[in-house]
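Intended use. Records like the one below are meant for learning the mapping from a protein sequence to its folded structure. Do not use them to infer anything beyond what is encoded.
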Amino acid sequence: MRVALIQVPYHLGHEGVGMGAGPDRLVDAGAVEELTSAGHDVDVVRIGRRNGETNEIGASFEVVRRVAETVAEATGRGAFPLVLSGNCMSSIGVVAGLGRDVGVVWLDAHPDFNTTEESLSGFADGMGLSILSGTGWRALRETVPGYRAVPESNVVLVGIRDINPPEQERLEVSAVEVIAPAEATERIGPALDRLRGRVADAYLHLDLDVLDPSEGRANEYAAPGGIAAANVERIIDAVGARLAIRGAAVTAYDPAADPEGRIPKTAARLMARIAADAQAKLEVVRQ
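Structure written out for the chain above:
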């Protein structure tokens, strides 16, 4: 399978800092070689911003627009878009660029379900799933080429354990299906079966801090009680067995939080698993 490995080296619109340093480190540490050794043809694409916007919200949305354009280009030439991004807001661009209705399987330690009205920190990347599902920054999100809101009922949120009270209140009244880390491998199959009743295709979102810190610390926001890497692989397999994975993102790796350098090898293995499951299902779809 041809894989477009799309590097998005930005954190809140700033290049190469914090989690924005993660995409380059993951590539330098062997992500391309892992995919190539699994039999994939890999095109590496590194996006850049086009404007000089310096405020973090405007700059972040410029990055999202570039992701949407680059994913659309990749899918247009028949490549599978695998995005390596500093921030989870990249999800908005990936789904827009896919140009089709998808379910979302979101693996993360955090819900990213804050809103502009209720956030006390103003941390834009904590709003990624809210924006993706149609809440917040209406005018800006509509500047993203191909933007489409994913209904909350088509979102499966896996592994969250660091949740602030407004997010918890929102989730309790939302249609998002939430699966705690301890229940992940048991509940993911039935949740995906329900999702498959509504959509055939999926966007898979893997924030690396869904991993338990015993696997390596993905970023400063990593929280205890996460999911073992082997179980993340099982979850990816469960998605691929039921839905056609049309695109994926691996996000939120900050090399400074991982001085032992444990995360890149695990991340590369998970990328290869995503690509393998995407390829297997898409080959069946084409038959």
